[in-house]
Input
Amino acid sequence: MRVLLVNAHGTPDGGTETGLAELARALIAKGVDVSFLIAFAPADLVEGVPATVLHKSHWRTSTSRRLASHVEDVASWPSDRLDDVLATHAPDIVHTHNLPGTGTGIWEAARRRRIPVIHTLHDYHLLCPRTTLMRRDGSGACRPHPLLCGLRTRLLGRWVGGVDRVLAVSQHLHDAHARVFRGTEAGLMRNPVRPLPRLLGAPGAQLRRIGYIGALHRNKGVDVLLRALPGLEERGLVLRIAGRGALQGDVLEAARRTTALEYVGFAVDDDKLRFMEGCDLGVLPSIWQEPGGPTWSMSEWLGAGRPVLVSPVGGLAEVAGTYPGSVATEPTVEAILSSVDQLLDRQRWASMVQDAQNVDPRAFFDGWVGAHLAVYAELHARRHGRT
Output
């Protein structure tokens, strides 16, 4: 079976991309012929896997490319270029993910070639050009404009007839897109707890270091963590932060004022593993409606055997406090400090660590890969008239 994986970005610097790379490797190990269609260069998710790149420039570094991509996304035409890509890769299944830079025209191009399409929802791109449903400064929710945003969504959704199955990483995200995919077969495909490349040492016998890794933006609750810093310092705790973003300057300034905050910069690969190993507890204080349930960040903390404080927002509300090792914690200073106070109790802490250490990432991950294979096989059989 040949599967074409379609995504905006082709480098493993985000949760979706990291997961996509691991899915590709797992599929290849199962004998699936995998290739990529990537919107923005570079495309090195998995070394040696064939990849077609649509745009040589990247929207992050080219203003003209960013503006052109917004226009192209709305147009989302099933162009000759997309048809050529399908002809070249000759997939049995097209599996689309984040579509900025490619557009939903790929669905129609595949339909015309009678190729089954699966689309996985990871964010709000089809509803919001910022993909977040948040105001530009991340300070609060943004209600989509019924004319401007509504027209954009209708244009993006006009090719939805080419999608045979829509999967969502949370029920919340599926419900948010119910009108777009009305009548399309749907299912959940939650992000798995991610197995890490190596086994990490266990957290300390007592809570000492709390870690946040991710984008340094308001919608991620980073400013809430900074406001909670004095309370954490009073309790003898250290807050460790890794990442980059709009609030990076605020984090650096806070780190200069106190030894209770350690900022390590942007951490990936071995640096990320060392960062997580140097933390006893993870925290996800998001204030926006996180689409993932769980998010990849939550899955990595649990995969590292660390308990994690999780905001019960969006898709996270479906798993916060229900996954072993997770504690549902509202994204406020008071709630974070209250959860921390509970975990400063040695007996409570030992119980939470045990729960987190008992999580089996490999079982989660293998089940996730198997679920993908089952959907591929079903649609492939349907295409060839078998049931």
In short: The CA atoms of residues 52 and 85 lie 7 Å apart. The radius of gyration is 21 Å.
